[in-house]
Structures are given as C-alpha cells and as structure tokens.
Amino acid sequence: MSTESTMNWITNLVRPKIRSLLKRETPENLWIKCPDTGQMVFQKEVEDNLWVIPGSEHHLRMGAKARLAHMFDGGQYETIKVPDVPVDPLKFKDEKRYTDRLKDARAKTGLNDSVLIGFGTLDALPVTMAVQDFAFMGGSLGMAAGESIIVAANTAFERRSPLVLFIASGGARMQEGILSLMQLPRTTVAIQRLRRAGLPYIAVLTNPTTGGVTASYAMLGDIHIAEPGAMIGFAGPRVIEQTIREKLPEGFQRAEYLRDHGMVDMVLHRKEIRPTVSRLCRLLSKREAAA
Fold first, then answer.
1. Disulfide engineering: 257 pairs with which of 16, 123, 227, 251, CB 3.0-4.6 Å?
2. CA atoms within 13 A on the CB side of 244
3. How far is CA 68 from each of CA 34, 72, 101, 127, rounded to the nearest angstrom?
C-alpha cells in the first residue's frame, strides 16, 4: 500500500471512527442557569421542583400544561375548547407575517394560542382554571386569548364553579391592533358576571403580568395571589421614570412591593399555591374542607 493510500485510509476511515468513539453526546437543555446566582442546575431537578431553582428559590416560568397538571387532582382535567376566531384580521406584517408567527408559536408550545383552559377537581372540589402561557408570543392578549378568558368565565358560570386564572402576559397583541384592545372590556364584563353570580374568582399573578391585562381581568379577582419576584404593572419602570422624571423605589412593581402597598393580597411560593387556592375556593364557595 502506498504512503498516499495509507494517509487517505487514516484520514477517511480511522480518524472518524476514533472521533465517534470519543465523542460524548450531550442532551440539549441539560442544565439551567439561575438568573439570580448564575448557578448551573440540572433541568430535571428544576422541573421536579415545579420550575423553581433549588437554593435560590428563583421562580422560572411554568408552562400552561405543566401548571394545570400540577393543580388538578391526579393531573387529570377536561380541556375546554374555544371557538375559532379570525386568524389575521388586519393582514399584519412586520419582519415576518403574523400568520407565520402564529405557526411558529403553535409549533413551539403545542398550544393553539396563549391561554389554555381546564375543568377538573382540586381536592375534590370542581374548579375551572385557565393559564396564560408566556411562551406563546409573550402571553399577549389577542382575540383568541380574550375569547379563551371569556369561555373560562362562562364555563365557571355554567358549572357553578370557582374560576382560577394564572396570568403571565406582556400586554395586548399589537398585530391585532384595536381588536386586541377590545378584549379588555369584553373580559371585564365576563368576570363581572361571575361576581354578580357570587362565584369566586382567584387571580394568580406570575412573572410578568404587565400591559393591558393589568387594566382588566388580572386585577379584578376576589383574591390576588402573586409569585415571588413577579413583575406586575401596567407600564414598565423605565417608561414611568421617563414620564415622572424621578427615580423609582427599590423593588417597585415587584410582587413583594405590591403586597406591602395593598395591591395584591399575598405572595406565595409555588409549592404553597395549590393548597392555598384549594382552601380559598372552599372558603369563598362556602364548602366544607376536603377530608
């Protein structure tokens, strides 16, 4: 065998085999970096801890399906369907078409839009729950999301159950313009209907709860619960500082600040939310505690 043939054999056959033997496949997203401390933590450990970083207790965002599975008994619930709405009423396009953004978000999250509704039992008490998923276009409020909130309220009304809503949103969906803003009064009317019927509505504010949702259903609950460190407000701190030309207090618009100033009722660790919501639903429904 010639020297050239030997080198080709080593280069083309031996080296790739050696590389394949030495190469270690590392699964994607094996580690998660804590935003507070920079600590690297196994994703499985964080997932098992309800997406809270062990040690720092930083609350990461929790997906809609995972949230409902955690809240309902045995992780079992009925998914409530929402009527179809016009997909792209304004034929909106910026860097890419709105319809393409929707397709990407649906493929990424497995959701039809930013709100998922479930009906099931919480410690044997029938409850309607809806979760706004920030992973779907920033949890933005468009016609589909607004319709979902209304359907959730109507489901609670028809089935005479409490409504629990987990909120995470950057505000109205700009691609739908005024049609997005119209969801603010529509959802407000739906929530007021529950109040007139004497049915409990509990709002759980997660990070972030901002924009138009804070001017409607997010702040209309009988009880407002917030997760630790959640950003809650209408406009962002930078916009407010530029408007009033003053430095804002430390922790302004964070859950703990709002609790101390009476805007939310309690700030709870994610592990405490399920038993607390269960007790509140029974208290407000005048139902005996579960055995």
1. 251
2. 10
3. 24, 6, 25, 11
Q: Which two tokens stand for residue 261?
A: 């100033």
The 3-state secondary structure of 219-288 reads HCCCEEEECCCCEEECCCHHHHHHHHCCCCCCCCCEHHHHHHCCCCCEECCHHHHHHHHHHHHHHHHCCC
Average pLDDT over residues 2-8: 58
CA distance 167 to 132: 5
CA angle 123, 124, 128 (to 5 degrees): 90
Structural domain of 39: 31-60
Give the HSE-up count for residue 179: Cα atoms under 13 Å, Cβ half-sphere.
15
Nearest to 144 by CA among 185, 190, 189, 183: 183
* Count of domains forming the chain: 2
- 122 and 150, same domain (yes or no): yes
CA–CA gap between residue 186 and residue 103 (Å, rounded): 26
Q: Mark whether 51 and 135 lie in a shared domain.
A: no
With 0-12 / 13-18 / 19 or more C-beta atoms within 10 angstroms meaning exposed / middle / buried, residue 146 is buried
Look at residue 6 and tell me whether its pLDDT is greater than 60. Answer: no
Sequence-ordered list of residues with C-beta below 8 angstroms from that of 41, at least 6 positions apart, any chain:
31, 32, 33, 34, 53, 54, 55
pLDDT tens profile 53-105: 999 999 999 999 999 999 999 999 999 999 999 999 999 999 999 999 999 99
Answer yes or no: do 167 and 230 share one domain.
yes
Q: Is the separation of the CB atoms in 120 and 138 below 8 Å? A: no
pTM: 0.88
Whether 56 and 107 share a structural domain: no
| HSE toward the beta carbon, residue 22, CA cutoff 13 A | 6
Pairing status of strand 40-42 against strand 31-33 = antiparallel
